[in-house]
Amino acid sequence: MAKAVLVYGTGISGCGAADALAKQGRKVLLYNDKPAQVDEELLALLAKQGGGLFCGNGAALLPEVEQIVLSPGIPLSNPLTDTAAASGIEVISEVEAAYRGYKGHIIGITGTNGKTTTTTLIGEMLETLPVQTAVGGNIGQALSKEVENLNADAWLAAELSSFQLEGVRDFRPDVAVILNLTPDHLDRHHTMEAYGEAKRNIFKNQTSEDIAVLNYDDPTVRSWGELAPSRVCWFSRREQLNQGVYLNGGNFMIAWDRQLYTVCHKKDLRVFGGHNEENVLAVIAACFFAGVAVEDMKKVLLDFKGVEHRLEYVMTVGGVPYYNDSKATNPDSTIKALEAFDGHIILLAGGHDKMTELEPMMKLVQAKTDVLILLGEAKERFYEAAVAAGVQDIRKVATMDEAVQLAHAIASTPQVVLLSPACSSYDMFKNFPARGCYFKELVAALPK
Question: pTM of the predicted model, to two decimals?
């Protein structure tokens, strides 16, 4: 009798993978360390194939398992997977499991910041092609679900976190995009070397037939160019490249194989900030190799309004604009948000502390903000770092409600109120979208 696959984790990715694998006829043991509840329909499907939901003692399941598929939230190395690997059981990520069941084309996107905006925009551009397209991975549904009904001509835009990439084996995208690398998730990866190695897995199986789209302006990513086994297409905001995608006089340019194309001007975009210009350059490069026409790129770019929770304009109250940047879950992301404004910022920051370095961010906070309002688990460490950087006006509050009320009480033209936490949300909210939505509700309820 065929052995089972153990899917570790009962979140979106785990349940999606379990569903897809069971539909392929495999016996699936959906496993979680702690008691969990999943959809009754999924339970019935698993039972039909001889599997089910199991919680608690995972080691007891290993004798009947030939493969473990990990949800992104489960580290590659943990007591259960270490025991399994020592017994010869293959351990892979959900992304790898999805890839093995898919025959179409893939643009894989990774980087510390900008993944969701870039992936969303690539997805919209791919829709201009006369083939099936989908967007998945670290955005929306599990990749396993997104690829279920796609044929060999399809194009998939896959947002890939370091968590998802650390467990790939054969994964090989046609186009691999690396946006940037700055400190993040060190509570899981421990070192920048390990974090970078996970990111580089995106191109490790590529060949000379494939393309790696890399950020020329990021020193670490630039150094990876010689490690890529594929053709490298650089993108740059700062340099006019002989070959690649770059800005020239504000125009987004493509130079490739002795051809030169102008896509559009940055002033025509609805999104703003240097980080979004970088994202757009990466999108143009990736979609160029997927066969998207330059004219179609331009149409999509001119219509694109950005992604929710990423420098999202909420509304203006009493002459003061409010921006929701809840997706800024690390200091570098908050730096990019601060750089998008001229100054006079009232910044709301703090949350679950990832123990990342704060000095570069706080230097910019000192230069750009009028008031820093801190909340969440991280507020004391953030406070100390802000004082050390010379930030003058720092306030500490207990809740998001207090933070918004305080910002409203002190804000006046020409200031802006910016939620850009530089932290994950798990101390106070389920996730960053829940945090951003709550912030927007509070702003909408302010007296006009």
Answer: 0.82
